Amino acid sequence: xxxxxxxxxxxxxxxxxxxxxxxxxxxxxxxxxxxxxxxxxxxxxxxxxxxxxxxxxxxxxxxxxxxxxxxxxxxxxxxxxxxxxxxxxxxxxxxxxxxxxxxxxxxxxxxxxxxxxxxxxxxxxxxxxxxxxxxxxxxxxxxxxxxxxxxxxxxxxxxxxxxxxxxxxxxxxxxxxxxxxxxxxxxxxxxxxxxxxxxxxxxxxxxxxxxxxxxxxxxxxxxxxxxxxxxxxxxxxxxxxxxxxxxxxxxxxxxxxxxxxxxxxxxxxxxxxxxxxxxxxxxxxxxxxxxxxxxxxxxxxxxxxxxxxxxxxxxxxxxxxxxxxxxxxxxxxxxxxxxxxxxxxxxxxxxxxxxxxxxxxxxxxxxxxxxxxxxxxxxxxxxxxxxxxxxxxxxxxxxxxxxxxxxxxxxxxxxxxxxxxxxxxxxxxxxxxxxxxxxxxxxxxxxxxxxxxxxxxxxxxxxxxxxxxxxxxxxxxxxxxxxxxxxxxxxxxxxxxxxxxxxxxxxxxxxxxxxxxxxxxxxxxxxxxxxxxxxxxxxxxxxxxxxxxxxxxxxxxxxxxxxxxxxxxxxxxxxxxxxxxxxxxxxxxxxxxxxxxxxxxxxxxxxxxxxxxxxxxxxxxxxxxxxxxxxxxxxxxxxxxxxxxxxxxx
Length: 650
Prior knowledge:
Elements: H1 12-19, H2 26-40, H3 45-52, H4 59-71, H5 75-91, H6 95-112, H7 115-131, H8 135-151, H9 157-176, H10 180-197, H11 200-216, H12 220-236, H13 240-256, H14 260-277, H15 280-296, H16 300-316, H17 320-336, H18 340-357, H19 360-405, H20 409-443, H21 446-461, H22 465-487, E1 490-492, H23 493-510, E2 515-521, E3 531-533, H24 538-549, E4 556-563, E5 569-576, H25 581-591, H26 595-611, E6 619-627, E7 630-641
């Protein structure tokens, strides 16, 4: 199910013009190609690919291209070379090095501001993560590629081809999660685009993946037909790796049909070709098939040897699916050898690995993202039509204004001034409304609601009625307060603190009630009359929970203090004893989490807008706490103004 990034050679006449006869030696062709791109520095991906594609599998030539591109500040060439080098490393299972190369390619694509290269780099990163069975990151990168692709109103052939790649890869993710009908839907979409482009490699890949889904659903004869179609296309383009993939799959179907006679030679041929290619991913798959054949024919000694080779390779390269499958078969071999202890251990290892892939959270995440990217193209088409209609409307309005204002110049100046003033007011009101809507979406985050209800569901399943009723009551109160807060721009400090108690009670369920949350209010403060933006403290508490405490094992504590240090402000201090911002930042960069930083930005904007009515503006400080030079938590110090403008000081 491997998806190589490829593109049919375009602009043949350009190549003939610049490089002369195709009978010239390849090294001379490469020198001609380098000379051309060094002088012209083409920016379109189609031209770059048509010139350099014959050399993309040669690491020495691509390294030369990379060095030249960096020296001449040709960002497009650097991105192309880095992606080619990343594919080379991926094909020999050096996934960490491959990721670094593709990520650097993405950086150069951003510098070049090339949608085609951005999409290509994102898809390449997604393919590597998919090969490593890291479902969420793979899906993140492919859907990000799709978002950019769908935002292009008139996509090039390269972008259309990348849409096919993304859809194929998302289909492969569905295969990992055993969502075979959804996988078939994505493969058929990709297949349609590849047929329109007459891309034989894309057709070979999609027919193979369709066969895999059919095989998983039990339609073995239909799967064999699809695999044979894929093999025919791979023979047409002379793809050795494609033959390895098809041989392994056909052999696996023969095994399921108990056709051991035909299975053995084709599996052995797949192994021989995979060893020649030195692709550890397919070497492990071939050893796995061979081990399964030998297990079913009671050749237990050689079966154990080959299955352990598959397991060692897949463990070395973090190939989770292959680890699970080989562990299951080793469990079966151990059971046949009456070594029940080893059989149990292998089986438990397999189940543990599968559970890391097939989690309810992963399934929910994939379904959410799938719906999002399916709607992305339609939404962009609607936006394009809306922009076009808006442009027409503005032109008509402008023409009417020109006809009217030529006769009434003085009136036009007055009207223009009024329009400018009104536009600023509308923009300000729109900005305020947008902030309030963003605030509500932040609090009503679907994952927070889903996870909260899921936690309450567990109490119900465990027949813990007391806790179920207790937390359900708290959850309903919290939702009601959030909905009420959405109608009001401001709330009292007392209501805000009550809402935060409810929020922390609900979040604490997911931390097994390990969070020690305390609120302390200066008795001199009248919490009923102090006003502040509604739900303004929630993002800071959420940061403390998920960035400070979620990665900590025990002794989790958050203190919220409200004190009055001066007559102009009340001070809210939120202190946690978490891992600190530096460690949290490193974790979040690996997880690609951005929502909390966005929530804080929205909160700052709301506080700035709120402060406009007061004599002083708000202040926000974030202090890193240390004990013996070791990070021991974070303190948020938020000063909220209390004196209105023109307020008489008594």
